[in-house]
Sequence to fold (168 residues):
Amino acid sequence: MEFLSGDEALDMPDRIEEVNAKHLESLIGERLFMAVLFCENHLVTVDDENFISRTFTFPDNALDESTSALQHLENIDDKADRLGIAFVKVNDLELVDEYGLTGIPSLVYYRHGAPILYEGDINDEEAVLEWLVHNRSTGDDEDVIEDVSPSSLEAMLTSVENLAVLFC
Fold:
């Protein structure tokens, strides 16, 4: 089962892999573009620095909302992947608190390590994908003409409202 915990697992189609806090921190440092779904899928037991085991429970509707959000996001995972945006999910109440998230499920996009919180309807696949694409290409980067693969172009054409394409 070790193959499911490595970076190769992030490239599995139609599946958003769950990572722990330590792996998430590493991925954020390594990847330029990372979308993270903070969600609930069961009770969480955490061993803190004093080796005291504590079990957290999430709000009553968090499991249903997290399951729904995950299903919708898995529908756009392949398109995001073709754009170089990795998707993972995290089930860690301490991280939710540490990052100051007001509830779960929450979607946070890390662009060059900087977090951006999605504030729209997490179940609106088109809006989420458009938001990811928009935030992938904004910020402190200079405007450039990118050389993209056919699959990246296809994903952009289906998810971006205004796009200029130069064939050469």
User: Anything to note?
Assistant: The radius of gyration is 17 Å. The first strand starts at residue 17 and ends at 18.
